[in-house]
């Protein structure tokens, strides 16, 4: 059960980590599909490339940008094919019961054991049939609005700049209905990252930037899934063995803080002739978070309407996870009115321990079911039996993040100076999924992103306003969650305002 709950707590991270990952925060990054490293400028360079904070025609000014983004995932119907996934999330394998007599038991002990086994036989068939191998589900629409703030100082002390970014690196709310969506019945997660940074510019050809990462995460979940288990109990000379899956309905809440760093480098190799070419590299470090919270779960073995065993467990949670590192290289070239940038991105999803979970102060209560008389006479004895059952659970079968691979992303963006005041942007990106085809991810498919945007400058460049739109498409026809409404979609709509003073 412990890795089971860890899996559920991490579903939110998986959704944007392996499926709809949010690299895009500011207006420019959304319009350019994050093809925004070497060409990053303005207040949001404090996040995307702090080494660039000292470059550009506004390097002598304070710059502040306030950005608001709306995330939208349309409603869709789907079929969950439980046979296509390696682990057993959401799949009922039924329950098998066997009763045998202890070897070398005496005649009278054997008779007593046979009586016990006769009583076990009255509980029901020895094989309570497994549930369906596929099931229908419905995902209600997702709508989420969040603000973000970026700031960059003017250059001081002959080449220094400082910056600050407050972003939402991942977050989501999901509400699924139907048997096919029980394991994501309701999930909410919000992540907020604060990035202070500082840079130093050497002449007009080299910029170096470093920064800190402070990330806070909070999640609330209400989910159901099935955990494989095996358990044995000896009653006199009778040995009762049960196996199959336990249906677990859980509600949990958790939060935590993690720390990391980022470094950046920008070079203008032709600075002695022109500043039209910029080559940049950035690295965001891994970030470890210990989430702490509370769990309340109800576990049912056998038929839910007439369970063999049913119990409630309440416990304190500690969930440790690692946010993987990211490396980017960008090349930006200006050609007249156009700025063209290409970005290669490497996400190290194989890094670190995905989901390490501990629970403390576990408490069992309301233990019932047709097998309760074989679990002990007192509540304490039955709680000890439940503890023993937990030790027989196959946690690996419901683990999330096993076998994930490092991935590549390829991004291309174009910015056009339509007039001196108006800029237009367009982009395309390809984002690999880290999730193997028989693994868990929402959805476990590669992504194709397209973005557009405009930015308009007013009042002698002291104020910019603009808007951006992007759409990410996911083809999950080979996934075990198969949409019946075409490609999976994530849409971002952004409006931003930036001021200089």
TrEMBL record:
Any one of the GO CC terms: cell outer membrane
Pfam families referenced in this protein's UniProt entry, alphabetically: Toluene_X
Species the sequence originates in: Helicobacter brantae
GO MF annotations, alphabetized: long-chain fatty acid transporting porin activity
Main localization (coarse): membrane
Membrane listed as a keyword: yes
Keywords: Cell outer membrane, Membrane, Signal, Transmembrane, Transmembrane beta strand
Family according to the record: Belongs to the OmpP1/FadL family.
Annotated localization: Cell outer membrane
Annotated protein name in UniProt: Transporter
Membrane topology: Multi-pass membrane protein
Signal peptide: none
């Amino acid at each position: 059960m412990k890795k089971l709950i860890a899996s559920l707590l991490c579903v939110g991270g998986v959704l944007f980590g392996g499926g709809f990952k949010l690299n895009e925060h500011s207006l420019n990054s959304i319009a350019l599909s994050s093809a925004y490293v070497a060409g990053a400028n303005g207040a949001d360079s404090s996040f995307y490339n702090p080494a660039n904070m000292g470059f550009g025609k506004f390097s002598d000014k304070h710059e502040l940008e306030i950005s608001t983004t709306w995330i939208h995932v349309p409603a869709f119907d789907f079929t969950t094919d439980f046979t296509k996934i390696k682990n057993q999330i959401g799949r009922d394998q039924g329950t098998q019961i066997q009763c045998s007599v202890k070897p070398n038991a005496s005649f009278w002990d054997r008779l007593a054991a046979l009586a016990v086994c006769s009583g076990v036989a009255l509980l029901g068939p020895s094989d309570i049939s497994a549930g369906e191998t596929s099931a229908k589900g419905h995902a209600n629409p997702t709508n989420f609005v969040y603000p973000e703030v970026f700031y960059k100082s003017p250059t001081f002390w002959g080449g220094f700049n400082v910056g600050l970014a407050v972003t939402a690196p991942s977050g989501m709310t999901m509400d699924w209905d139907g048997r096919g969506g029980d394991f994501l019945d309701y999930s909410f997660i919000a992540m907020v990252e604060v990035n202070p940074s500082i840079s130093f510019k050497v002449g007009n050809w080299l910029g170096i930037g470093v920064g800190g990462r402070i990330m806070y995460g909070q999640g609330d979940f209400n989910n159901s899934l099935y955990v494989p288990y095996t358990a044995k109990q000896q009653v006199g000379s009778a040995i009762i063995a049960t196996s199959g899956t336990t249906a677990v309905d859980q509600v949990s809440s958790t939060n935590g803080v993690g720390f990391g760093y980022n470094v950046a480098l920008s070079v203008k190799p032709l600075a002695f002739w022109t500043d039209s070419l910029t080559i940049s590299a950035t690295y965001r470090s891994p970030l470890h978070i210990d989430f702490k919270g509370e769990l309340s779960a109800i576990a049912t073995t056998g038929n839910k309407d007439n369970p063999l065993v049913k119990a409630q467990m309440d416990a304190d949670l500690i969930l440790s996870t690692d946010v993987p590192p990211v490396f980017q290289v960008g090349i930006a070239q200006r050609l007249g009115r156009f700025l063209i940038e290409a970005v290669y991105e490497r996400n190290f999803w194989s890094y670190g321990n995905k989901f390490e979970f501990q629970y403390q102060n576990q408490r069992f209560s309301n233990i019932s079911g047709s097998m309760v008389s074989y679990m002990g006479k007192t509540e304490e004895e039955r709680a000890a039996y439940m503890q023993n059952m937990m030790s027989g659970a196959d946690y690996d079968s419901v683990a999330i993040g096993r076998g994930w691979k490092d991935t590549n992303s390829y991004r291309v963006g174009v910015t056009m100076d339509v007039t001196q005041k108006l800029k237009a942007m367009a982009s395309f990106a390809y984002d690999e999924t880290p999730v193997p085809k028989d693994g868990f991810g929402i959805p476990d498919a590669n992504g194709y992103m397209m973005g557009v945007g405009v930015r308009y400058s007013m009042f002698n460049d002291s104020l910019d306003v603009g808007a951006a739109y992007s759409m990410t498409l996911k083809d999950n026809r080979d996934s075990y969650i198969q949409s019946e409404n075409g490609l999976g979609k994530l849409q971002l709509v952004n409006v931003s305002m930036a001021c200089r003073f």
